[in-house]
Amino acid sequence: MTDPVFDYYPRGTPLFLSDAMETAMHEALSAGRPAGGALDAIENAQVRQLERDPAFRDRMREAYATAGVNLVSPTMGSLDPTKPFREGVRQDVARWQARVDAVEWFERVTTPAEARAVADRGDVGVIPNVQNLGAAIVGDVDEVDVLYNAGVRIGQLTYNSQNDLGHGCTERVDAGLSNLGIEAVERMNDLGMVVDLSHCGRETTLDGIAVSEAPAAVTHSFPRAVSPHDRGKSETELAALADADGYMGILAVPFFLDPGNSDADFDIFFDAVEHTVDRLGVDRVGVGTDWGSWTPELPEPLREGILRSFQGMGFREEHGVDIGVGYGPVQAYEDWGVIPEGLRERGFTDEEVGGLLGENVLDYWARVVG
Prior knowledge:
This protein is about 45% helix and about 10% strand.
């Protein structure tokens, strides 16, 4: 039996470029498309490569095996600022369906039981998420059902800024959930969708925890006691999450864990895990690296434009976002194995490490779906 190893991984796949993918990028840039549009072109070309090239499929499978990850939660959407957010989400849902159709060892999973079965078979399970539910449903709560029917199982209510549901963590003010936000949470509860509060502001986070009948999650964040950054969660939020029997995944982003420092010490990640375990308990904490479009995998010609895209999504200069960087010993997704090694070095038992790597998030998900 293979243990489940889960990561909240917005990119979803390692981004090693084939000749066709690189050509698609340059053609998009030459046509005047923004960096986010060129990244979409790369992703579309990757799907074609997965459909047609067995050696490319084998290379990707080996990357997951080397990383030791068998369950990923990719974020549906586009970083193209000229594309309506809702449209980018739907296009990416279709793109991920094409990947699953093309690759026999990629499987979309919609329940904790399916996730365990996929991991046990040695395949890679895909659990789609949306990081800005308010922008994805555009004021229509029935659109939550549409996303659920398309396989999305994790819905982050807001991104950094205010939307129709509530306020994000970099917004100037935070008044909590709107009436529509409450309706959305109630619909998510009815469906069994995870209420994710990772980028939400403090009051919106507390509201989300209180309003949700099912335990809420913070899939990729860290405690502000370790790092005083807007993306972190306060002691009050951690206490509320613990009281609600929720879950928190710790991200591995250097310039968040050590504000503005792209060369942050990797030990801060483990400090964040330990602090969160102290507050929530070792069975309610996991890993959500947030590895993706800020990492060394992103091609050099896209980095400046992608940084502008992030700045257009509520990150400001003081948030220290950097592009094209890794985090200490993790310079490619295949380096993910340093995480379980470091957890053991911090004194976590094998059973506890198994929980932190995957069992805890699946147990949490089972509490959500009942």
